[in-house]
Design a protein that fits this description.
Shape: globular
Number of helices: 9
CATH class of the largest domain: Alpha Beta
Strand content: 25-35%
Amino acid sequence: MKKIKELLKGLTDIVAVSGKEKDAHTEVLALCEGVFDETYTDKVGNLVMIKRSSKKNAPRLMLDAHLDEIGFCVTKILDGGFLKVSALGGINTRILPSSEVVICGKEKIRGVFSSVPPHLSRGKNEKGTPELKDLLVDTGYTKQELEKIVSIGDRVACRGELYELSNSYVVSKSLDNRSCACALIDMASRAERDKLEYDLYVVLSAHEETGNMLARVAAYDIKPDIAIITDVNFAREHGLKSKETIECEKGPSVDISSSTDRDISRRILEIASLCKLDCQTVVEVSSTGTNNERIMLSGEGVKTAVMSIPLKFMHSYSEIVNLKDIATLSDILLAFAYAPKEEL
């Protein structure tokens, strides 16, 4: 678990708000040194990392996890060193007041979302859920100082460093979807070329959180025989209906959906069972809410499966996952990549 925790911390420390994934690729590759045979960034900002099987003409297995995280974009610089921002991705505004952020200008500086003390907000003027348009980021700079560092369009990221709770649970920002990226890199680092039945194409894709899902471009270029899309899903918590969630510490889930290939999903579950690795199922009737729907439509079509890690408090700066679930996802994918390819 120590290796996975260290890798996950390295990944979550990286800032990669949607649209600025390319800026993070050098840092990601530093964490993957010596793992892959070839890496490249495509025209739209997907990072593709390849580890080849020793077998000639091996089929291509694409493993996708989106690299981008939710965040904000600077829209205005105001007097007093305040910033107005717009959302990039699904932002829960209820948790923003008083939360810390990192503004990625010419240099990275810190700021705090404004809030009104309860002493001043009682009574008829008290509001419920704040709207982003009513919140400002306070930097402590003057407007003149800030304009030398920050420009309109610069990205702003939530701040939340990784730390460990009990029983292998960890807290951090951007565990959606760095937890799956961690599993894919860990899996590739352990894969032995002479045992691989596939050439591995690990894709850390761009713009998933903003709905553009540019993993489709990577799939068009790679032309995979099979693609497994990895993402997070809602962990079971008090107050959430069980059918909408998956359990922590019970391994990743496999989606049962009309938009995934049933034979590949079955094969993953069979391999997990044979290897005595925990694996769950979740029903996503028509759409998985992941890159899957774009990847499956790439080129002449791609056979896909979706696997998910349970995550608590999604789209916050204090998301929670269990390291055991990351390790199990890595183990199942490695076993799949070692298994002789069936007629799928």
